[in-house]
Specification:
By secondary structure, the chain is of the alpha+beta class. It is built from four helices and eight strands, in the order αβββαβαβαβββ. Strands 1, 2, 3, 4, 5, 6, 7 and 8 form an eight-stranded mixed β-sheet that branches. The termini are far apart.
């Protein structure tokens, strides 16, 4: 019996103890639950804050990427335009280069042609100079032999190619010289060609009067037979210094209006104007 009571007390105490434990256990669970809720709320705020910052940074990053993309797009378009422009310039330069190359080829061709023509011209000029030199040599020889053939004297006159020439030994002024020639049925000499000039030059050793003058009109030179220099087609004025005719008026204020063959310096190949008052030898000429 006593054992039963002891067991009952044990059971009761055990139950009571379990109830107390249960009550105590329920008390701590509520606190923990409250703390858990508070902790959970704080973490939720932290997470939401972090998420907000993350979203802000993400949006900022997206904006930055968008701006960079737009900038790169603008740069790309600009580069594309520059590329197109450069391509057009290169194409234009290529066309210009082609044109320049073609013109260069044409210039080279023209240069070659001109060079060939120049070489040909040089050769022709050389041949011309050689022929001219040979011609002048032959002409001198012919003039010499022609002059030698004009030595037939007829009453003091030298016959040559249909004309008679007389070379005076006296010295007279131009008018007196002409009077002497006219008195012999002749006149002062008229020079009408190179051969006649060469013949006369070969026969004189000092200056002689000719029939050329500009007594009527200054600068208009005519022969005593009224032929002009244009009509005869030849003139042999001195081309040195001073160039003739110069109408020098120092010795004669009226000027130099009569022409002589040669001067006192021995230039017998040329004509000189001189004062008609100067006394010189003279050459008469007449037909036969």
């Amino acid at each position: 019996m006593d054992s039963i009571y002891e067991n009952s007390d044990f059971i009761l105490s055990t139950v009571a103890s379990d109830e107390n434990c249960s009550q105590h256990k329920g008390f701590f669970t509520e606190e923990q639950e409250s703390e858990r809720k508070v902790s959970s709320s704080m973490w939720t705020k932290v997470l939401l804050t972090l998420l907000g910052f993350s979203l802000v940074f993400a949006l900022g990053g997206l904006c930055a990427l968008w701006m960079i993309y737009n900038h790169k797009l603008v740069d790309f378009e600009s580069l594309n335009e520059q590329h197109i422009m450069v391509s057009e310039q290169l194409a234009a330069q290529e066309i210009n280069s082609t044109v320049i190359l073609r013109e260069l080829e044409e210039l080279k061709t023209n240069y070659t042609r001109v060079r060939e023509q120049l070489l040909l011209h040089v050769e022709m000029k050389k041949e011309f100079n050689d022929l001219t030199a040979r011609y002048n040599t032959l002409r001198k020889w012919l003039s010499f032999y022609d002059a030698q053939s004009c030595n037939l004297a007829v009453d003091g006159w030298i016959a040559c190619r249909g004309k008679l020439y007389s070379f005076s030994s006296d010295k007279l002024n131009w008018w007196s010289s002409r009077d002497v020639c006219v008195s012999k049925g002749a006149d002062l000499v008229t020079i009408t060609n190179q051969s006649e000039q060469d013949f006369l030059v070969s026969k004189i050793k000092e200056t002689h009067w000719t029939g050329l003058n500009d007594l009527d009109t200054e600068g208009h030179w005519v022969w005593v037979n009224n032929q002009t220099l244009t009509e005869t087609g030849v003139q042999f004025w001195f081309n040195g210094r001073p160039i003739q005719p110069d109408n020098w008026r120092v010795e004669d204020p009226s000027g130099e209006n009569c022409a002589s063959l040669g001067d006192h310096n021995g230039n017998f190949q040329s004509w000189f104007d001189a004062s008609c008052k100067t006394e010189k030898r003279f050459i008469c000429e007449k037909e036969y």
